[in-house]
Design goal:
The structure holds 2 protein chains of 2 kinds. Helix content of chain A is 75%, strand content 2%. Chain A is built from 11 helices and 2 strands. In chain A, strands 1-2 form a two-stranded antiparallel sheet. In chain A, helix 7 packs parallel to helix 11. The longest helix of chain A is centred in the N-terminal third of the chain and has 40 residues. Chain B is of the alpha/beta class. Helix content of chain B is 38%, strand content 27%. Chain B has 12 helices and 14 strands. In chain B, the strands form 3 sheets. In chain B, strands 6-7-8-3-9-10 form a 6-stranded mixed beta sheet, with helices on both faces. Chain B has a 4-stranded antiparallel beta sheet with strand order 2-1-4-5. Chain B has a 4-stranded antiparallel beta sheet with strand order 12-13-11-14, sandwiched between helices. Chain B is elongated, with a radius of gyration of 22 Å. Classes of the chains: A mainly alpha, B alpha/beta. At the A-B interface, helix 1, helix 2 and helix 4 of A face helix 3 and helix 4 of B.
């Protein structure tokens, strides 16, 4: 084994780092799947039912879509946000600061790039899966299955990737774990409310509409709705490119932030 | 061909030249030169804050030197640190085991990260469990292990891929004497297997018991290096005599010994006269009754650094 490893050349990105991280997370997920799934899907589902059935008695349809289905497809983005940003923030902080797991892994042939990408992609995969739950619930409120819906987990994955990296970046920026309160209140809550989930952003003032265009969740919501009710080109290409750019930017920030904390 | 390549020495597992590292105003490592020949256990002896842990982290590329050059197993750090880490095992001072996993799951995860082929993983993990005497606790959660077991698991994790070079950062700190003895046997076994071991410690006994070579580290640099016997004979001779008495008498003895060219060091209420075998009989009579003992590495350390261990 030693002779082999002495002569082999390592590449910048290798499967082993991903396999190690994913194996660990899969092991834990098998043990804690019930609580993890519960916390990630119940809250968005409650929003769906509360707004869809509550406000739905006042508003019958938006843009020709029955209101409960409008909200149901919109809360996919909410579920993705909850399932990606919070693990990205809290899990990463705990593993780095309290458990020092990342220190252990970086003493093995793993780089910060690989670590961030592996952790983020695992979180995003879960977010993509959990994001489909509101959609499934909406089937019970008359949502008609469509082929485009097969793209929803992938839209959730891409959005989740961006927000997982966002969470990982903030975990490297905050001074204490309590500081996440500011991130949740000042960043995530506004993003979640002004994403076109519960009402169209066209009802907002002009300046808020412009800001909403910079909200990744808005682009996720639009893509999911179009996947369910019919694609629109080239608008959907724009939404897709925005989400790709968001994930890319957050990856760079997460790698830089965590490298600064882990390798000094 | 660059000069760095020309200077490369294949007999060395680790080679540091004029390495410096600061954290803000704090200088942790200051012009450090260190050679670790292959196949030996080298003890990096120094008090807390001497720069030992920072040095260890620089060897894995987890801390970046501000200046100087570092080579590990012939590879340049940090540019080739990922490749170097495939061939070294690291046992950190602070417990960073994955407490949510079992003993076996911890080892399996690192068997993957260390690129052990899938078909060899199970055997590698079983071997690591056996070497660390943890086979019967393989399915226990880490949180259910004693402190000694957790430390053995840390060592097993660092050895799961059968590395050429092992970095042990304060391997027995905070453990009771019996557990320390067990771990020393484990580390002795590494020497028998021909591995290169760099072990930082601030325990004199640990360095004397385990290290083929000792590098005395103080304020971020190595002030002396060699086999313990050589360090003793070079710096403090064979015999140390400790003299006890009231402060004025201790001060008087200290002055007499120093006037005769002998090194001294204060040890609590006593003064130790080093290299006492070289003292003239008249001087020994003048110094009075003292307690003679064999010189040890602590004498060397205190003499060279003026600091006290622990």
């Amino acid at each position: 084994m030693t002779a082999t490893s002495a002569t082999r050349t390592v590449r910048r990105y290798e499967r082993d780092a991903f396999e190690g991280v994913w194996n660990r997370e899969w092991t834990l997920f098998r043990r804690f799947w019930a609580s993890t799934t519960f916390s990630s899907v119940v809250q968005p589902t409650i929003y769906l039912l509360a707004f869809g059935l509550g406000v739905g008695t006042l508003v019958t349809a938006v843009d020709g879509i029955p209101y409960v289905q409008y909200v149901g497809t919109g809360t996919v983005a909410t579920a993705v946000l909850f399932a990606s940003a919070f693990p990205g923030m809290f899990n990463t902080y705990v593993k780095r600061v309290f458990q020092r797991s990342y220190d252990a892994m970086l003493a093995a042939p793993v780089t910060v790039d690989e670590l961030v990408t592996a952790e983020g992609s695992w979180i995003a995969a879960k977010a993509g899966a959990f994001g489909t739950v509101p959609l499934v619930v909406t089937f019970f409120f008359g949502l008609t299955p469509a082929w485009g819906m097969l793209a929803v987990p992938f839209i959730g994955f891409l959005t989740g990737l961006g927000f997982a990296f966002f969470g990982m970046w903030t975990s490297a920026v905050v001074k204490t774990i309590d500081s996440f309160t500011y991130v949740t209140s000042a960043v995530l809550t506004p993003l979640f409310l002004v994403a076109g989930t519960f009402f169209p952003i066209t009802n907002l003032p002009q300046w808020a509409q412009v800001l909403a265009q910079l909200n990744p969740l808005y682009h996720c919501v639009q893509l999911v709705r179009d996947a369910c009710f019919g694609w629109r080109w080239p608008e959907d290409l724009g939404h897709l490119l925005f989400l790709v750019a968001f994930a890319g930017l957050m990856w760079v920030l997460a790698v830089r932030g965590l490298r600064g904390k882990l390798v000094g | 061909m660059g000069s760095a390549r020309d200077d490369t020495d294949d007999s060395l597992a680790i080679r540091l030249r004029d390495v410096g590292k600061s954290f803000g105003q704090l200088t942790a490592v200051d012009g450090l030169d260190l050679d670790v020949p292959r196949g030996i256990v080298l003890g990096l002896l120094g008090p807390n804050g001497a720069g030992k842990s920072t040095t260890m982290r620089m060897l894995t590329g987890q801390a970046l030197a501000d200046s100087g050059s570092i080579e590990v197993l012939g590879l340049t750090i940090p540019s080739q640190s990922k490749q170097a880490r495939t061939r070294m095992g690291v046992v950190p001072q602070l417990d960073n085991l994955d407490t949510e996993l079992t003993v076996r799951q911890n080892l399996t995860m690192f068997a993957v990260l260390y690129r052990i082929p899938r078909r060899e993983r199970q055997a590698a993990v079983d071997r690591a469990l056996s070497n660390a005497s943890l086979s019967d606790r393989a399915d226990s959660k880490v949180n259910d292990l004693s402190g000694g077991m957790r430390r053995r698991l840390l060592i097993a994790r660092g050895l799961v891929h059968d590395p050429e070079l092992v970095l042990l950062d304060e391997p027995t700190v905070g453990l009771d004497p019996q557990v320390r003895q067990d771990l020393w046997s484990l580390i002795d076994g590494l020497r028998a297997q021909g591995k290169t071991v760099l072990m930082s410690t601030h325990y004199i006994e640990e360095a004397e018991r385990l290290a083929d070579d000792v590098a005395v580290m103080s304020k971020g640099r190595v002030v002396a290096q060699g086999p313990p016997s050589e360090l003793l004979s070079t710096h403090v001779g064979e015999q140390t005599i400790e003299y006890y008495g009231p402060p004025h008498r201790v001060a008087q003895i200290e002055q007499l010994a120093q006037d005769a060219g002998l090194a001294t060091r204060r040890t609590g209420p006593a003064v130790s006269v080093l290299g006492a075998e070289r003292a003239e009989p008249d001087l020994l009579r003048e110094l009075g009754d003292g307690v003679a003992r064999a010189a040890n590495l602590e004498d060397v350390f205190v003499l060279l650094t003026g600091e006290v261990l622990e």
